[in-house]
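In practice, a research group might receive sequence data for several interacting partners and want a quick structural hypothesis before committing to experiments. The following worked case mirrors that situation: the sequences arrive first, and a predicted assembly follows.
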Amino acid sequence: MSGTRTTDRTGVAPRTGGPGIGESVPRPDGVPKVTGSFAFSSDLWHDRMLWGGTLRSPHPSARIVSVDIGAAVTITGVHAVLLHDDVPGSKAYGLEHSDQQVLAGEVVRHEGEPVAIVAADHPETVRRALDAIVVEYEVVDPLTDPAAAETAPPIHPDGNLIRRIHLRHGDQQVVGEVQVEGTYEVGMQDQAFLGPESGMAIPVEGGGVDLYIATQWLHADRDQVAACLGLRPERVRLTLAGVGGAFGAREDLSMHVHLCMLAMHTGRPVKMVYSREESFHGHVHRHPARMWYRHHADRDGTLVRVEASLLLDGGAYASSSSAVIANATCFAAGPYRVPSADIEGVVVRTNNPPCGAMRGFGAVQTCFAHEAQMDLLAGALGMDPVELRLRNVLATGDRLVTGQAITGTAPGAEVIRTCVDHPSAASIAEDPMALPGGAGRTADPAHVVRGEALAVGFKNLMFSEGFDDYSSAACRLADGVATITCACAEVGQGFVTLVQQIAHEVLGVQEVVLEPASTETIGSAGSTSASRQTWMSGGAVQKACEEVRVRLLARVADEHGVELDGLVLVDGLVASLTGDLRVDLVSATSDPIHAEVEFRHAPTFPLDEDGQGDAHVSFAFSAHRAIVDVDVGLGLVKVVELTTSQDVGRVLNPVQVVGQLEGGAAQGVGLAVMEEVQLSDGRIRNASFTDYLVPTALDMPPVEIAALIEQPEPGAPFGAKGVGEPPSITSTAAVAAAIRAATGLALPRVPVRPSDIVFGGGAA
Amino acid sequence: MSIDPYALTVNGREHEISEGWPGESLLWVLRERLGLPGSKNACEEGECGSCSVRLDGEIVCSCLVLAASAVGQEITTVEGIAPDGTLSDVQQAFVDAGAVQCGFCTPGLVMAIDVLLDSDTDPDDLTVREAISGNLCRCTGYGRVIEAVNLAAAFRRGETDL
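A structural hypothesis for the assembly, expressed as tokens:
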């Protein structure tokens, strides 16, 4: 394809060559982050501030008979103890449906649901006050099996079905000559960001409140908080406090309303920081999934039909479950041409912890299943699994199972070919530290077998199904300095760097100032999720800068009586093409130029009753090849090497792209072999980093980047696609497949546990 | 519930702690009483390494050390490893290598790598991974972090500038 550029790893230089697009420009917040001076949300401090805390339900399901706060309020140093009835406005909030209680009233629906909040002079006083609150519960048997949810008595007035999509595509009578069938499961993963939920609310004279909080979407938070406080949105001002990672877990409110209630009640600033244990209870998780599949193909390997039934456990509240099941359903068949499909996606309510957004939402679960099916099909056909994928992989012009034709770039074949063609650097481990089990020197080299496999996947970028998805940005050019205002939440991904690069690229300015992200200064930027901010807020910043550029050139043309189309902006100068006019930016903007814009992607449309429609904007493809060593006697796995290729549209900052690919792969490795929120009767059994294991540097292999496929995407700023989610989608599937290749086991569930390997792991 | 005042020596300066509760960890006192929030509070149970500081040169999780027990010891935090307004070699390498994303684990990693390179300026890959395996990072997958270690190690060997 013309315009295609493949960047191999040698193009990823650690040092920058310049400040513009395509360079590894260093993060502007890098220096404060390495010196410890960057202010995260847990670092906030204020004179006279109080500490807040939350009393949470120990039961997954119970009726609240009574709450006695008498002993708690008399403790010296306690300033407030607040309950459900103290919530001034709406008692419930939610991203898509307001179904989640700010503080539990008559019932609790999951372990850890907030029941009471406290403000006191010291965290230890807070802890004692929480201990002194007496709640009498009438315990109810929890609904914990998602398969029973639809027939069980409703646990919420909105019912137990959150969303069902029954997608039917093409000829429903077609049958393939070869069929393979399997049932797959994905466990509940935690985002496990390092910076715990934290923030500070400061009461404002006259009845408003300022909230400094780590979040992914300030304006959506603001609207929900204001409704719960019974205030007009403009009385609630949110400012982004330093965010220690997000990965989806900060899309929903956590402590936001609690902090504001305590601050407004006490008239003093209140700070709250969740402990790690509380964090596991205080945010949504990745939906666990059960997925049945039947693939049909002709003998030559051409896919003819996919049937699937997907069941996701939404937990007690809806959160973003509707969007998650939409993704799971729309991308259930993977990045392949499938002319006939019958896919039912269901997400239900249970008394398990609420589930919502996590990196790659919906597509992660189904990628694990559809890639296992593709390998199973290759086996049934006696065909090379790479060849099977290449035969069916989507390209521009092909239709998804939703009926939508891909109009943008779709280099699925390129990601596969570059990934499998990349030479492996993996050697056989000699140091026992590098064997499965690592420093414990547990593995017996005689029992270690190696496996290698490929997985391919794709996902939509940005919000879908007709959502009015936009970002706002302003640019003010004064004395040659560009000041950008945008409410995009920087959560670690590097938007703050892209702002510098984009403003430099469009305006030629050397100095770019990014104002703090706030609801006070500009409209919504939308959510930092769905791989959307490079495109959406990057697009808004580009558009604002271009607007300023147009006005600047018009001003110079007007002031100097020259033709507008004879002027160019280059190297900090407005110059005429004839060379006789040169005006420097500083003097040309002594009178500031300001532009504020909204940027929207192309419209999308709802899915119809058959799950058909142009519901998505753009798609990104990725492939991972995994090499693993497995001690088959002990069931231990060492991921030896990951190799990846990704469809990125265009690389705006090479080192930041690499960082996303490496970091996303690590989360995928975690889901493949170690990360699972363990539940027992609805209770989390491992709410700590002692028991919930995330990959360390010894668990992670080197991530070899075979290729960044650069086919500029129409409509995207500089042609760049978001890059954050695909690495998490295909890495899990590839690692699981490599363990299958090493062991010959079906392994239909992730994370793969030692017992699955030692005792066979069940049949697919 | 306070205890008698005591003094801590942090980054070469002596600080008196008055009105402290005896159960306060060193991490808490650094962050909330001494205005040194660079040491981070990611798990407060000794699993993530984000709160790593040096205690008489040895690396410890400050969340697991009672503040009042650190009297008389030299405490070095991320704020104290380079003169104000400058970066240490490890800090500069983190910036140059793109090893910082959200940055919450960064101070702890910087401390752990500083300790490693003090004893070994030419560590192999497994040695590096072992040395930082007590520091959880959720953003980077450790790739750029290891690149930063390699940059800083080469600098300490005198092979490159930073």
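Before designing any experiment, note the following. The first strand of chain B starts at residue 6 and ends at 10. The beta strands of chain B are 6-10, 13-17, 52-55, 58-61, 74-76.
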